[in-house]
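so my prof wants the structure for this chain in the tokens format not the other one, which i didnt know existed until like an hour ago. anyway here's the sequence
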Amino acid sequence: MASGRALASTGCSSCRSAVLRLFATELAVPVASRPRFAPRLAPAQSIRLTAPVARPYSTTSSRADSQSRNPPSSSSQPTAADTSTDTGAGDADSVPWYLQVDPPRHVATLEPPPLPTVPEDAPPILSSILEYASEELGLDELSMLDLRELDPAPALGANLFMLFGTARSERHLNVSAGRFVRWLRAKHRVHADADGLLGPNERKTKLRRKARKAKLLQIMGTDETDDGIRTGWICVNLGTIGRSGPETANVSEDGRLTGFGTAQEGTSIVFQIMTESRRAEMNLEALWTSSLESFRAAQKTPELLDSHGQVMQQKPADGLQTPARPALGDGPGRKTISNRTASFSTTRSSGRASAHLEAAGDPMLAYEEPGQLAQMDVAELRRVLGLLHNFLKYGPARHVGAATSSHTVDGAREAFFTELFDVIVDRLSPAETWGCRLTFHAKSVKTNPRDPAHASVSQALLQEMQLHGIVATREQYTELLGAIWMAREAEEHPPKGVQPVGRTDLALSLLTTMQQRGQSILANDVVASLLQSTMSQESPSSSLIASLWDLAAQAGLPCMDEPSLMRLLTAASRTAEEDFAMMWDVWQTAPRYLQSRSPAMYLHMLRLAAQSKRSQHCAQVVRRCVLDMPNERPPVVLEGQLVTALRDCIKIADPMAEVIAAKLPPGAETPAAKREFVRMLVQLDAMQGKGY
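here's what i got, hopefully its the right format
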């Protein structure tokens, strides 16, 4: 509409053609001059109409046309600069969009991820392996660990370099590992061992057999089972590169023959190729990195300070023990190790261990200060750790309880024990100190079961055993189970960021670990440990105790041994029950299985009754024990310590019985002589051939 009004406003055909040319040049359509539309003017004017039409990619100037069209005038003549500027702008605008040339666009090159830095003294094949794995195999997230510092060397080889790579899929994993092994054999003449790699046709054959079996059995979802086909992990072991010469004799500096062996001068290379999920699950980098950091931390010898705060001259770290330098000598550096520690034998004996520790008095004071442990080698530290472990097991109860108490330690002896224990735990590896730390924790729980921090310590010990693969004994399993169940539950409102851990969850996790390691969980020691821990609680659950007894009966377990029954009696005697029902339930366990009780069992029962200081309970224990002793097979004879324990119980049950029996004449029939415990004392004197 606008173009029509503009054309109508122009009077002559020349003006209309000029206006039409403005629109025609944008579409690059030259205005064809037809005879019927040509204006009746001179031929020069018609030539002027078609001359200014712009052509694609044309830079022709229109100065001549403008001069011929407009006569020279001083007022209307444009300058040369204005003409050239208008011409350039008109040429740029006259190019259509589909003929405009875009500026070149350079696609950014994709740079490959950087490869791990290879040490300068590494074998040249290591760089070639990393480049081939990144460019040819297409493995992602390549990393490398330099484990040459570890001493002793890992089982994979000495001077170990461990490489890690991630495959995109299970198929990519097998193809990459197969190509890598063939490339090593053809390029570097290295015959590598690939654990977990299936042959070219072996994988297809196994998958075909698996599909056929699933079709026959109509099993759905069998891909989720671990059938050994999809492992997600292939370990390529290149062996030792640059292996040393044959075996030779080793001679020390003083000329003595120390042995035979081969110097490990080569470099071992292992390539761990895994899928992304398997690599995240195994997390081998974190495992080997922690081992390397632990070794580096152990190599740092703490500085010894003298009394003036100056750094003392450290002893050279010589871990090799030769016959000329025994591990525990009497030299100047070890004069503090006196003969007082000789009574602490690491050999476990039944009765003498406790007696030796009782006689020693101060076992830890054989060392003047814990700082002297920095001068000891690993063998000496292990021996001191064994002494401390024996002290925790067989030491006096009052000293062990004070040393393992979580409250303020009273006395320099217990404080010294704690300091010495911490120093040794820091110097040795966690696997070596796990057993001693477990015993320390169990004694601490027994001393103060109300401490809410015991749950976190139990959880840490359990996770450490599971993650590090620590091989525990049956006694240690039950000891940890008892410590878990005896401790108080975690706080209902724990501190911020701390997740509460329940005793039930920890106990079930421990029992699951025992079952996975081939240990029987339906056994008397497990049931006894749970019963003892439950009875030792502040408010023992009678329903749980009854359930445990029913479990032992329904599982068909044999009768518990006497040490277990004695521990249960001790735990039951500390309850707040008035009738001691739990204690009598434990006492009747042996007769239920038609088993006889030994004199040690009766002695333990009488001593527990005397420790309770309750007259009614002591009277009941004396009556039942005196009646049951002759019925045992063989009968239990009242003699020695049994008579003393029986007299102690009678003294609590009837304090006047001993005085009355001492004043009675022989054969008296007075009412005082007919008292129950007076007659019992008279019979005891008659059996022993004594009289008052």
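also thought this was worth mentioning. The longest helix spans residues 170-187.
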